[in-house]
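Dear U.,

Please find below the material for section 3 of the report. The protein was modelled together with zinc ion; I have listed the sequence and SMILES used, followed by the predicted complex structure.
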Amino acid sequence: MKLTFFGSSHGVPEPNRRCSCILLEVSDKKYLIDVGTDPVPLLIDKGLTPCDVSAVFITHVHGDHTNGLVPFADICSWRFKDADPLIFLPEIEMLDALKGWVKLTCEGLRETLRFKEVKEGLLYDDGTIRVTAAATQHRDRAYAYLIEAEGKRVLFTGDMRGGDGPIADYARFVTEDGLDLAVAECAHFDATLYLEPLKKHPPKLFCINHYSRRWLESCCKLLKEIAPDIPALLATDGLEINL
Ligand SMILES: [Zn+2]
Ligand SMILES: [Zn+2]
């Protein structure tokens, strides 16, 4: 299993950091987690196209997680007509907006493109990965995803509640040891709030993602305080994690 961070930034892009988008590769299959930036040029840079993408999982409908969906759906409609990703929308109402936009940019959204609304619980199982969605308190219909593949378990927190986010949301999802990787946001709270849930159920690897400058100092403090017990890192664009 391999993760490539196409975008590690929070609501606002920062120098050399685009908004949230992660490419997940498991055996010969590819998936996207959030499309806060246009994933198409980034796929092409890696010798891939949208035809290689099996599914897209969007955590919630804020622009820093969805702004790349229009260009992705647009080019799948007129150029990459063999692309057949199953696109998970946290709010199915997004589909009307998408249809309206792509009607203006090309001949309209390709009818064979597949969309499905996210619901809590087991969401997707293609025999290669298994994805379970859990609601976060970031906003109405915001989700974290637990991905299981090749005997590994990886949590993508999506965005969580501000203030006591890691305790309110993260601690609720991570109730047992054995996570191989947690990709955790840090745009809405002091990162040291992760200390308590991390100590309780340490993952094998902790990756701080979607962090803002405001909380950067707390991210560094957290990294220092959990080391060396929990291997941890700060995501940057282009970072690759092999599990
Ligand atoms: Zn966000
Ligand atoms: Zn958000």
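For the text of the report, you could mention the following: DSSP finds seven helices and 14 strands in the chain.

Regards,
Y.
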